[in-house]
Amino acid sequence: MTYQELIGKIVALQDEGLELFNAGKSVLGKNLLATHVGDYSGPQVLIQAGIHAREYITSLLLVEMARNLYLNDLVHGGGIYFVFLVNPDGAEIVLDGIESVNCDITRNYLISANNGSLDFSQYKANINLVDLNTNFNADWGGGSQNVFCPSTEDFVGFYPESEREVQSLINFTLQTRPLLTISYHTKGEVIYYGFENMSSENLTRDQLIGESFSEYTGYPLIFTENSTGGYKDWCINTLKIPAYTFEVGSADLPHPIGEENLPEIYEKNKEIPLIALEKAKEYANQIDFALSFVQNKVKGESYEKTNKSNATGYYARLQSRIEGRNSNRRSDC
Ligand SMILES: [Zn+2]
């Protein structure tokens, strides 16, 4: 699969009637494509994927979920936001190779961080060599695997929320105010819940909701330990809402998990958005989204509602850029 094909699958949802949004931008200015299914009134759920470059199978999973929910008109009394690919710059490197990076200096910087190898199939970071799922301001830098120098994985950034993708996802979350969030990752078939210093009420609530996800998927539910700075951690720590990290795909599969595994992953996760929304409704009076925080803290770029022509124009620009990539390499970055 190429990067163009991946984006093409997201954009094609418009042909089936879904409206695409722009949830923000990547460092290189790519749109973070998103959609909404269901009602804007009532409890909302936010599901995001592809924050780690090599985990783009999770973006395809969200495409299947959104299509199924929309075409079968399954979402009522609330809504579900899908942010398909939070790290498009990184996904492009994994899918199209390091040659897809036009700028000579950036390309050489990344190759050097990759120990001189031109094989970027295992890459996780964004274009700045920051692991986006360690860059959120939730005990930032406190994780056991964190590193403090640019790296293809686990670098927390030079300061919390330094990365444009992270700022975008935070801002989108603050504006859409979900009562529950799910982050899709690969791999291992487990679900992580909880974070340090939670109130006992929230811990019990999040465990009970998590058990419903665990029962449906068959994935064990595990309390998060020694891991910080993730989107889930930020949602729990700052917004006080239930948030989960799903690691899909068997631990035996190599990274990146290929498309041929999508049907099995989808089958195990198909109903998760609906279960999440039902739980958000059921627990709504026990979820206190930190509204005072939101009013004080909205920052950065607003997400834009894009109409069909805007999103299609974005796709056309992507196509022409890819076509011109090799013949027209820029070194004047
Ligand atoms: Zn991941």
Describe this structure in words.
The protein contains 11 helices and 9 strands. Residues 298-307 and 328-332 have low confidence and may be disordered. The chain has a single domain (3-324), classed as Zn peptidases (Aminopeptidase), CATH 3.40.630. The radius of gyration is 19 Å and the shape is globular. With 333 residues, the chain is of the alpha/beta class. Strand 1 and strand 2 (31-38) form a beta hairpin. It has helices spanning 3-11, 57-71, 88-96, 104-113, 164-176, 200-217, 231-239, 262-269, 272-282, 291-297, 308-324, and strands at 20-25, 31-38, 44-49, 79-83, 180-186, 190-193, 221-223, 243-248, 304-305. Strands 7-6-8-5-3-4-2-1-9 form a 9-stranded mixed β-sheet, sandwiched between helices. The site of zinc ion has 4 residues, from loops.
Order of helices and strands: HEEEHEHHHEEHEHEHHHEH
Unreliable runs: 298-307, 328-332
The share of residues in helices is 25-40%
The CATH topology assignment is Aminopeptidase
Give the number of DSSP strands.
Answer: 9
In brief, what are we looking at here?
The chain has 333 residues and is α/β, with parallel strands linked by helices.
Topology diagram in text:
Layout: H1 3-11, E1 20-25, E2 31-38, E3 44-49, H2 57-71, E4 79-83, H3 88-96, H4 104-113, H5 164-176, E5 180-186, E6 190-193, H6 200-217, E7 221-223, H7 231-239, E8 243-248, H8 262-269, H9 272-282, H10 291-297, E9 304-305, H11 308-324
Parallel strand pairs: 3-4, 3-5, 5-8, 6-7
Antiparallel strand pairs: 1-2, 1-9, 2-4, 6-8
Helix pairs in contact: 1-11, 2-8, 6-9
The structure holds zinc ion.
